[in-house]
Amino acid sequence: MSVKIAPSILAADFANLQREVEMLNASDADYIHVDIMDGVFVPNISFGFPVTEAINRHAQKPLDVHLMIINPDKYLEEFKKAGAEIISVHFEACVHLHRTLQHIKSLGCKAGVAINPHTPIEHLENILEEVDLVCLMSVNPGFGGQKFIPNTFSKIKRLSKMIADKGLNTLIEVDGGVNQSNAPLLVEAGANVLVAGNFVFSSDNPITTIKNLKNIQ
User: Catalysed reaction(s) (predicted)?
Assistant: First the structure.
């Protein structure tokens, strides 16, 4: 299975958002990664329903919505209405994670769980059967452009073994500091989905950059 690429729209030029989304439509990207930050769970604020809806109006790729917020259960229906096809919530933000995942699936969305760099992947042992995607944060969440945390490679390998041992098809997504240098190593370790923000949108030719990431074996 070839790696899936999910450019993070947070790194786009928001003065030309429609143009940026149309560029992604024309690219080899598989998803559009949408980072929602509330300034509480993470020390930054991004955007909410109106911008997500605006992205969705022009998007021809599935929206991969990453909720970096507290109390995500309150907003699941609204993000579904705004166009989310994948909704990932943070393990650290959910008191009743199983219930939250069931809620996401009941809306017709794929359910994802994101975990911060300090969170052991073993904490997901009893929930993996309910998860379509695990988003491993390879930087501390909240800001783009951070340096990749090398321990991520070990976490990917351990998570990949857990998934294989259970006979599951859960996708492993890596979010933060992804570039052309570490992407092959991430895929080799077992990653299926690569989120790339600044690396894509700050490049001279984002479409070529996405294509190069997509072609990594």
Answer: D-ribulose 5-phosphate = D-xylulose 5-phosphate
